[in-house]
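hi support,

uploading two proteins for the ticket. first:
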Amino acid sequence: MSGAPGSPDTPDTPDGADGADAGSGAPGAIDDLELPGSAPLPDELPPMPPDDPADAEREPLLVYRGGGVGSRREARERALALLYEADAKATAPADVLAALPLPAEPFAADLVTGVGEHQREIDELLGSYARGWSLERMPAVDRAVLRLATFELVHRPDVPTGAVISEAVELAQQYSTDESGRFVNGMLGAIAADVRT
């Protein structure tokens, strides 16, 4: 019975298979396959670089709640963009938030909502400290940064004063004029001295 299953003449494999067991190390096994022109994979990955000590002092990541993940710095940056948009469109910050296709990060949304709810109070406070400047004459980015930081100084006592001012100065330096960092620092320093005592 030549050719019958189980006979020495016919291997017990499906048609077209060569009888090699995949993964067994036998010739023709899948582990031996290499793609043309590809380098073999390393047996282990290189070690990770050492942790940066500055990372330990950075603020923790926000918890994901549907709007994205990021640091408080990124949330402030997002809030700044939304406040700038509201100012440029002469619309309420809440309307800008409502028009977003995805919800903003919780911290960014809290900042934008807070500025919108207290904008009259914030603008009066900024006007009283801006010697020789009206709020309307300030660069729009400076105005948005100052509103954001003033809201935090007055209504978010859980956020350290240094963090508020430092972040605001960095945002002003990054997105506004060369003199904006010093201007924002001076304004917020004076406001903080009065409202955070």
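and the second one:
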Amino acid sequence: MLHIDHISKVQIYSDEWQLLRRGKLTSSRFFTQMGEKPYTTGAMTYLYHKVGEELTGHICAEDEQFEDENTAWGNTYEPEAIRLFQKIKNVQYLATQKLIHNPNRRFSSTPDAIWIHGVCQNQVEYNVSTLEVKCPRKFHRFIPFRRCKTPAELKKISPMFYWQTLDQMWNCGSAIGYFMVYHPQFPEQANHRIIECRKMDLWDDFKLLEERKVLAEKKFDEIKAEMLAA
């Protein structure tokens, strides 16, 4: 279940959005913590980056990120894909691009959409499912995802997107999450794939995800304390 207070109202990519993500381990990068063993080079690089954000108060690119035609393509067609998902699944209530963060933890997430099934009896939590959308422009990138039909197949071709989807579910307390790939130039029957991820079916991976979150927070605090030591 997703607590109402954990849903931010800030605009995605705004200065406020960036500030709320400062020092937080985000879903899009948490795959760095999901190697065969904890604390790999990639895992530590990401933790160093986030500790640096918290200690300095400054946000900088995690790597040489820049917007190219592929990024612009994805930003253009993701809303179209979300509308298609809404139509296929007959979704009544859908919230898009909401930053989810628990102020008491070091994690945050911005799913492309959150399917709101209803409000819980306690009136402070929503029953939700998450949606992550990718719109690869290149045909050779789209087709392998289109051919995927299961979470296991998604995990095989893109551990990054697989763990991003599961991490979004974790942050939102969702029992079900969706990964969708979309390409507007393909025929209607071949222009998308929706993969449903059920927590109960992926229990071992969710258990591992929880373990790595505990380790990541512990290591974050250790690095921070060491940096601040006299």
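thanks. also noticed: Residues 2-228 form a domain with the Lambda Exonuclease; Chain A fold (CATH 3.90.320.10).
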